[in-house]
Design a protein that fits this description.
Elements (H helix, E strand, L loop, with lengths): L1 E7 L5 H10 L4 E5 H15 L9 H7 L3 H9 L5 H4 L3 H6 L5 H12 L17 H14 L6 H9 L6 E7 L2 H9 L3 E6 L11 H5 L7 E4 L4 H16 L6 E3 L7
Helix pairs in contact: 1-12, 2-4, 2-8, 7-8
Length: 252
C-alpha cells in the first residue's frame, strides 16, 4: 500500500492533490483528519446543547466535561478533564490557544439555530473555528498523536486499497505517525496564497514539518492533476523527487 500524508496551509490545494493522487489508482481511499475531529465535535455538541458564554470559564469547563468520554470512544485515547479544562493561568499565559474556541462560542451566541446542524463536508466552513480549536488544542494538551494514531489504525484495517492519502497533516507528530506506518509526507505550496491564519494552532505548527517532497501549486488544475499522477508513479518506483512544480507539467 502507498501511504501519503498531505501537508500545507489552508487553501493551498491539499485536498485537491490528495484526490488526484487517489484517483490515479483503481483501489484507493482518502482520509481527512477533519472528519475524525468532526466526529468528536458533533458528539460534543449533542452532549452539551446549551453553549456557554466565552467569558464564563467555569461554564466552559462544565461544557467540556463530556469530552474525555467522547475522545475515548472516537480515538481510543484516555484524556482527563483536568488536562483539558481552562484555568486562569493557562488562558493568561497562552491566550492564542483559546482564540478559536472563543470565536466558536461567539458564533453560537449570535446564531443559536446552528446548534441543530451537523458538521459535515457541506457545513465544515461554518464550524471551522471549532474544528481548528479541537484539532490544535487536543494535539497540544492530550498528545500529539491523538488524531493520527487513530487515523492510521483505521487505514491499516482497510486491506482493500493500493493507495491511501491523508489530508490535513498539521503537526510534526502527525508526520511521525504517517512515517512510522511506512508513508511519505508531501507538502503543497501555493505561491499566491494569502498569509496563513496566525490564530490557528495548526497553521502555526505546519511550518515545523519537514516533508519528503513538495508540490508547488503554480499551474492550472489539469497541470496539478498531471503533477499528482507523477508523484504517485514516483512513489511506486521509490523515486520521489524533492520538488515538483505543477506549472511545468503538460495536462494529460
Amino acid at each position: 500500500m502507498i501511504l501519503a500524508g498531505i501537508t500545507g496551509n489552508i487553501d493551498s490545494g491539499k485536498t485537491t492533490v490528495a484526490n488526484f493522487m487517489a484517483e490515479s489508482m483503481p483501489r484507493s481511499a482518502h482520509y481527512e483528519s477533519w472528519q475524525l475531529i468532526a466526529e468528536v465535535a458533533n458528539e460534543l455538541r449533542l452532549a452539551t446543547p446549551k453553549h456557554p458564554s466565552w467569558r464564563d470559564r467555569d461554564a466552559i469547563n462544565e461544557w467540556l466535561r463530556p469530552l474525555p468520554g467522547i475522545l475515548q470512544t472516537a480515538t481510543r485515547k484516555t484524556v482527563s478533564i483536568e488536562v483539558l479544562e481552562l484555568t486562569k493561568e493557562r488562558v493568561t499565559a497562552h491566550p492564542e490557544n483559546y482564540t478559536k474556541l472563543f470565536e466558536y462560542l461567539e458564533l453560537m451566541a449570535a446564531q443559536p439555530e446552528l446548534q441543530a446542524a451537523t458538521i459535515s463536508e457541506a457545513t465544515k466552513e461554518t464550524f471551522r473555528s471549532l474544528l481548528q480549536w479541537l484539532g490544535g488544542y487536543l494535539a497540544k494538551t492530550a498528545g500529539g498523536d491523538i488524531w493520527y494514531a487513530e487515523l492510521i489504525r483505521r487505514i491499516q484495517a482497510n486491506d482493500k486499497v493500493d493507495i491511501v492519502t491523508i489530508g490535513g497533516v498539521r503537526f510534526p507528530a502527525d508526520a511521525i505517525c504517517v512515517r512510522q506506518a511506512g508513508g511519505s509526507i508531501i507538502s503543497i505550496e501555493r505561491p499566491d496564497l494569502a498569509r496563513r491564519d496566525e490564530q490557528d494552532l495548526t497553521e502555526r505548527e505546519v511550518t515545523l514539518i519537514t516533508p519528503d517532497s513538495g508540490i508547488i501549486n503554480n499551474g492550472s488544475l489539469e497541470q496539478l492533476r498531471a503533477c499528482a499522477v507523477q508523484v504517485v508513479q514516483d512513489l511506486q518506483t521509490q523515486n520521489l523527487q524533492l520538488t515538483y512544480a505543477a506549472g511545468s507539467f503538460t495536462p494529460r
